[in-house]
């Protein structure tokens, strides 16, 4: 390492950390408290293989928060001198590595470390750190608040890409909180509303993710967004898509279908939209079957051997049956999204008469139709 060290530039503490750039990076030096993605390899002298490398565990770059205390001192100092896409080699004295004791058996005591670093990307978290320390947004200008919001948003996007949905939601929400107050200037207010729209919709996308699905929170977030940026939301396909996901899981199928219809009109090729519509049809069909089973059970519990039992006399249909039909239809009417109840076939003439009477009393429309040579019943709003 002594010969290699002669080719390097002194970086810190009179040459106790030396640096040789193998491939120059782009942009500025990594900012303090940046969230960095990198590959690394650590060597000791006279060993061809590294004693530690990010490649040992995965080909995906490792993620580190600068200043987080996860790296040994020399590693942190070396990293703070780099730029994005830079590849560099560092010779680090034992005082800034593993000291006199080392880390036996892989790292002897009092030996220098050769560190090779490749920075693949980073996110500037400086403004997020500033907010966490001060926690008083009112003292900042709109421009500074927007920078804090963008830092949160950049972190959130990164977390989302790596499957950490809960953390992504947290930072999208913090981005929204950072610019909750209205701006003084008209152009600033327009910029604020455009950013708020993205923050709200991204929160809803996180809440729609299978790993973090929360239908009621989607509706709540959508309602808050509708108060803040109502005009911008109506033309956002992802907003309607997320509402459709929420309504589907809450079994509000008519509302879900309407939300998906709006999303399709705005963006027909939105990812996962066709799959969501297919899922809606499957769940709605399953719910309809369960509704039919409920009606079958209602009549069977009242003493009929089957729904095909041909009971012709009204006197044989008890008052209990009529009350049950009335109760079920009244419950349907109370549902906001109720429009139609398809009861299928299998009812006797007397059962159909009760259904028709009770439907008309409640102002509902009773219809009969033939399907597959069977007489079917449907009750709907007029």
UniProtKB/TrEMBL annotation:
Signal peptide: none
E.C. no: 5.2.1.8
Gene Ontology CC terms: cytoplasm
TPR repeats: 237-270
GO biological process, one term: spermatogenesis
GO molecular function terms attached to this record: Hsp90 protein binding; peptidyl-prolyl cis-trans isomerase activity
Pfam families per the UniProt record, alphabetical: FKBP_C
Keyword ATP-binding included in the entry's annotation: no
SUPFAM superfamilies: FKBP-like, TPR-like
SMART domains reported in the protein's UniProt record: TPR
PROSITE patterns for the chain: FKBP_PPIASE (PS50059), TPR (PS50005)
Gene3D superfamilies, sorted: 3.10.50.40, Tetratricopeptide repeat domain
Keywords: Isomerase, Repeat, Rotamase, TPR repeat
InterPro entries referenced in this protein's UniProt entry, alphabetically: FKBP6/shu (IPR042282), PPIase_dom_sf (IPR046357), PPIase_FKBP_dom (IPR001179), TPR-like_helical_dom_sf (IPR011990), TPR_rpt (IPR019734)
Name the UniProt record assigns to this protein: peptidylprolyl isomerase
Organism expressing this protein natively: Panstrongylus megistus
